[in-house]
Amino acid sequence: MIDLHCHMLPAIDDGPTALDVSLAMARCAVADGITFTACTPHIYPGLYENSKDGIAAAVDAFRAELAKAGIPLQLGFGADTHLAPDLVGGIKGGRVPTICGSRYLLLEPPHHVAPPRFAESVFGLMTAGIVPVITHPERLSWIESHYQVFPDLVHQGCWMQLTSGSLTGRFGRRPQYWAERMLDEGLVHILATDSHHIDKRPPLLAEGREAAARRVGAEEATHLVVTRPQGILDDRPPSELPPLPAPRPSAKGKGGFWRRLFQ
């Protein structure tokens, strides 16, 4: 499996603070069946002032530590990128990395406030030739009141990434509900761990794949953790990758009781 969203680098953002924890995370990922991890620390102006060159240097150093420890995990890098002015300029200027140098960019919306003109900002990225991959929409506190923005963005060509643990209830019932709903409605392109630690948020992807397989079948579950992630690494255009599945019949009209409950 391929994990394209993981905070594994030590002492670079809100992930692990020590190398031994990072190595434990890498061992856990390998044991779970992950063969490739993209290290994607936050780029959040004013809080995490990471850059492409700094992340690349941190990955090179961590790759050397993996080799010394005999941990067979392949690494790449990108960034968990927050919306910021002139994000396109940051990408084209070499300050903000896409996922492993591809046309795909991890884009993290604010957790608790729906950003104004969010769809417009995402569309601006797409017109610049970038495929935004929205990270963990199911965990945003404003998804209830702005849910339709996500299907609309998918239909315009944006990608969605769910957190593996959301499908298994690691983040609670509410994110699990929205993760399952988006999966049922055929809105999810990839799963990733978004791991930050070995204990509270370990890099486990197999459990999410199995949970997805129970809802959308084994073939689509493989697309979520292997086929489409590999397509990103190969920088293939979305048109050459497996299309999203049709919505499940049970997804039609879904959300009455549960949506009222979580609102």
UniProtKB/TrEMBL annotation:
Presence of the UniProt keyword Nucleotide-binding in the record: no
Keywords of the record: Hydrolase
EC number(s) reported in the record: 3.1.3.48
Translocase found in the keyword field: no
Biased composition (Pro residues): 239-248
SUPFAM superfamilies in the record: PHP domain-like
Pfam families: CpsB_CapC
Full protein name: protein-tyrosine-phosphatase
